[in-house]
Amino acid sequence: MPSTSEKTSRVSVEERLFSLVLALIATEIGLTKADILSTVQGYRQRYVSGGDNASLERQFERDKDDIRELGIPLEVVEPPDDPGSNHHLRYRIPKGLYDLPADVSFTADELMLLKLAATVWREGSLSAESRRAMTKLNALGIDSSDPVLGYSPSLRVREASFEPLSKAMDRGQVVAFLYLKPGESAPRRRQVEPRAVVLFDGRWHLFGTDRDAAANRTFLLSRIVGPVVAVPGGTFVPPGEGQAQEALSELDALWNANLATISVQPGSDAAVRLSKRHSTDSPQSGEGDTTVNLHFTDLNVLADELAGFGPEVLVHAPAALRSAVRARLVSVRDAHTDALTTSTTEEGE
């Protein structure tokens, strides 16, 4: 038989919150804290009748904050015969405030597709909007065991900064982080109002207002060094839906404006990978040579990638990209030369 802790570990945060929301919608008079902890999935497995449930109560307090952050109207009802008593407070979610408008409806297929879109995100990277959508769709009757959901894609978020930036954006909090630009010897501290986190050309970007520069800037998440922290007292009005589209439009314009012309060896790894890109135009340029035109948003990111192909790639333009790739190859050559010289010297001794 599995232990109690093993059973609890199978209840995800999303499942516990969803169970709590369903329980609070189903009650008209509200549920006391004891009612919730002893009966709701995700709490009851750890509840000790007559025992110490302090950690479980703290979990419930955090979950209440999460529910409110998701935009769900959570009401607290004081007992009429014992006003001011925290022990007998009752919690409920008014169903009328949580239901969809009467003139809005979805077919079963539409609901399934909406939930499929919401489940693209892995649990650890769900934004507040995605969590709200997931909870709402579950409440509308879509079972998470729907077969089609087994084929949903997953966007993996590799950068540790993604989640704190998303939370700060949802809450309207100014953040600070160290940002290391190519060519700089040390990272610089940035204070930013995060307005959108978008995926473009296979990389995550933060679009926000740089408070020191008093202007909008786009940052690569992969260049954020160390933790993202909230600036005490720093707040702003959370962004609207158009911010992400603005960020993508700017990145798209930058991508279209930058074009690299390179040659790749036919049949090489570079030829296979680069010629298959959606941004690639690959006219043949004589035997033994293939010319590839690549659009790009960041010269240094592309230089890192092209240098990794070694002699399989020759950069023709722009000149700055050619110099950047050459500098990387020279650096690798010098590093290996120094290591070989040191090794030979040690063996001679």
TrEMBL record:
- The UniProt record lists the WYL domain at 162-225
**InterPro entries cross-referenced by the UniProt entry:** CBASS_pafABC_assoc_protein, WCX_dom, WYL_dom
Q: Which parts of the sequence belong to the WCX domain?
A: 261-329
Q: Which Pfam families match?
A: WCX (PF25583), WYL (PF13280)
Its recorded name reads WYL domain-containing protein
Species whose genome carries this gene: Cryobacterium cryoconiti
